[in-house]
Amino acid sequence: MKVAMIGAGYVGLTTSACLAELGHETVVFDIASERIAQLRKNHLPIYEPGLDALIRRGTAAGRLLFCNEISAAVGEADAIFLAVGTPTASDGAIDLSQLEAAARSIAPHLKPNAVIVIKSTVAVGTAARIRETVARMRGRMDFHLASNPEFLREGSAIADFMQPDRIVLGCDDPEAGEVLETIYAPLQGRTTLVRTSIANAELSKHAANAFLAVKIGFANEVANLCEVAGADVSAVTDAIGLDARIGRAFMSAGPGYGGSCFPKDTKAFAHSARRLGAPQGVVEAVISGNRDRPVRLAARVVDGARLRRGDHVALLGLAFKANTDDIRESPAIAIANALLRAGMRLKVHDPKAARNARKVLKGDVEWCIDPVEALDGVEACVVATEWSEYAGLRPRDIARAMAGRHVFDYRNLFDPAAMRAAGLHHHSIGRKMVKAEGGHRGKMTEAGALVLPQNAAASQA
Ligand code: NAD
Ligand code: UGA
To answer: Which of 6, 11, 88, 96 to mutate to test the pocket of ligand 1 (most atoms within 8 A of CB)?
Structure first.
């Protein structure tokens, strides 16, 4: 099939590279012409594991093209996927300006009977609005519309696309359904194709993200309880997760959910539900708990390590989760800003997201090229993203690098007993703080001699 992709972001690029891999002739258009120019030179504007190689394969095979002209991208296409951004508007609704603009830009160039496929995440009722926009511009209804929400996760986007739990095809007429089934035919046998109405498809995307966010929010609240009750949230979620009705996935407690999806989609879901007269109280409670969480966790750093203005804190991780360079709504950035507001000086590191973070994180921030440099001489350390290279740090090396000894392990990467044995106070999520073994120890030189930190009195207390 001939496919056009409008939007070359995380979803548009992954989806088009995968569609080309499935054998479809795929042309990608983005309004950001420099993005297309970069892609033509094989420079990816985002980091997504494996995407580079997949794009090279598609372009080398001649099945994947990047195009600067909307008419050329759309004119021959059987299906035109819209994968542009749908950010939150100031009132919590979805800002549909990118989607409306994309719909208007393709409308004059559609061949008769082309299928417009909404890939972007939208509230129920949006497809109907886009249908009107395109019909108005064309002056006739010689096209089809479908909703095909995307469920991939950043960091594992290709595998999620190629082996999805399900593919939802929302179509209100059989022609659109047939085109979409042909496009996804190579994945049949690996997954379930759910053919349903457009409204059901739109709602199933928002409801899925809202439910996953509720699961995480619930785990984080249970974690708060475990901390005061002397229980361990991992043990509790492991135990309840074995119940097939509950499931362990998406119950890892942490600094709160972030990213470009859960925060905005929960808000949009709640907003649209309220507008339609069916408020989603559970989701609204989760939204507010998640919003406050990073600030509370930053306060725990200042109080727990008895920090003073001007103290150095290492922040390991800036991305909203591991294996991505995406910092949108990252709890790590929210923690960083709260620490900066409290007068801390930050030494930060992230293996992939530093370039993006530099654009938003301003103030007393030192950018470090590896985690050990970030840890050097700091009074406290916060682990905000679960990169495997942080999990691989040896507690003894952390202790050796730091001046103070408080580690706030907000992704539960380290073994509390090993941290304790290395002379570190281990503050984790959903467990009581584990105090360092023995008395005070300060920064050690390479030879192992003890050098007391400047604020020894504070960190000893
Ligand atoms: P993104 O911001 O990474 O990419 C959007 C792209 O669209 C940008 O390159 C932008 O230049 C381009 N664009 C904007 N307006 C345009 C227009 N009028 N014409 C052509 N191009 C235009 O966004 P994303 O993360 O890929 O998300 C896209 C959609 O997919 C959103 O609705 C999002 O909620 C949804 N989604 C995202 C993910 C994810 O993991 N990022 C997963 C599932 C669904
Ligand atoms: C999420 C969904 O998982 C995808 O199915 C969906 O397609 C996408 O949103 C979207 O609609 O755009 P993504 O945002 O890439 O994908 O990342 P997730 O892996 O879901 O993580 C989201 C946030 O939740 C991260 O901050 C992560 O650290 C956090 N999280 C996740 C937890 O705190 N605990 C968990 O158990 C899982």
So the answer is: 11
The stretches of 163-309 forming alpha helices (DSSP H) are 174-184, 198-229, 233-241, 262-275, 281-304
Q: For the whole model, what pTM was predicted?
A: 0.93
Determine the straight-line distance between the first and last CA of the chain, rounded to whole angstroms: 68
- 363 φ/ψ sector (left φ>0, alpha ψ -120 to 50, else beta): left
> Which residue's CA is the nearest one to ligand 1's atom 25?
10
Ligand nearest to the CA of 233: 2
Active-site residue, 171 included = no
136-177 residue pLDDT tens: 999 999 999 999 999 999 999 999 999 999 999 999 999 999
8 A C-beta contact, residue 28 and residue 66 = yes
Is there an atom of ligand 2 within 6 Å of 121 CB? Answer: yes
DSSP state of 187: G
Per residue in 49-63, pLDDT (tens digit) is 999 999 999 999 999
